[in-house]
């Protein structure tokens, strides 16, 4: 018998047939609020933009006609020479830039991605109350690693259709079998002195484009 077996045996003997009260009563109550207040679609998008900005993401708005030029400018500002492109990203999105495109392929290594300047993706959903972007690996988003290794991520959110108020509203709309990535602002951490450092375990810069209808 291993030490692990002995420890687990003691836990089982101590717990016995005890069960959490909620489980004994037939389940955990989920009668909490699904959202905080009622908003129009425009108010929901404004709240998302405000919370993204609080996380130090850079927020931009565009319509389809202006999107290529905006993406071209966002890639040109940091001097990007290469950009990772998911296989399902609409071609016309990047028609306003001549940056070299790197396809998201299974054979691409993390070291190769580290040499790429930027990545442009779509998203699955955005949560207004938390300022969170959710990616699920769909064709316009690509594999998770392409949004974690390059230093600059540009994410396009189709508004208002892809924006929900809260996390409880988002969860039923997402496939739990897919590789979900939840992004709230650029990658950042703080040490014991509260000195903020960005780009530690993900992109240092996050540009979010709120793409409205015609």
Class by alpha and beta content: alpha/beta
Mean residue pLDDT: 90
Number of domains: 1
Instruction: Provide a count of the helices.
Output: 6
Number of strands: 12
Order of helices and strands: HHHEHEEHEEEEEHEEEE
The separation of the N and C termini measures 68 Å
Q: What is the CATH C-level name?
A: Alpha Beta
Strand content: 15-25%
Q: Major sheet, described briefly?
A: 6 strands, parallel
Coarse shape: globular
For this structure, the CATH topology is Rossmann fold
User: In percent, how helical is the residue content?
Assistant: 10-25%
Strand order of the largest sheet: 1-12-7-4-2-3
CATH evolutionary superfamily: NagB/RpiA/CoA transferase-like
Unreliable spans: none
State the CATH architecture. 3-Layer(aba) Sandwich
C-alpha-based Rg, rounded: 21 Å
């Amino acid at each position: 018998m291993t030490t692990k077996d002995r420890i687990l045996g003691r836990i089982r003997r101590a717990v016995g047939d005890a069960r959490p009260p909620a489980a004994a009563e037939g389940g955990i109550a989920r009668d909490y609020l699904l959202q905080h207040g009622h908003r129009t679609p425009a108010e929901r998008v404004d709240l998302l933009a405000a919370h993204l900005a609080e996380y130090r993401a850079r927020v931009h708005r565009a319509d389809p006609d202006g999107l290529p030029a905006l993406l071209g400018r966002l890639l040109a500002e940091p001097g990007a020479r290469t950009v990772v492109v998911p296989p399902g990203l609409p071609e016309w999105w990047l028609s306003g830039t001549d940056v070299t495109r790197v396809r998201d392929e299974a054979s691409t290594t993390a070291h190769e991605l580290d040499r790429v300047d930027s990545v442009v993706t779509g998203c699955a959903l955005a949560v207004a109350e938390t300022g969170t972007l959710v990616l699920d690996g769909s064709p316009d988003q690509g594999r998770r690693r392409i949004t974690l290794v390059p230093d600059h991520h540009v994410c396009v959110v189709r508004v208002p259709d892809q924006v929900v108020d809260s996390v409880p509203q988002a969860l039923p709309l997402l496939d739990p079998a897919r590789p979900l990535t939840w992004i709230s602002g650029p990658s950042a951490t703080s040490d014991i002195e509260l000195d903020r450092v960005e780009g530690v375990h993900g992109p240092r810069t996050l540009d979010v484009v709120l793409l409205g209808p015609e």
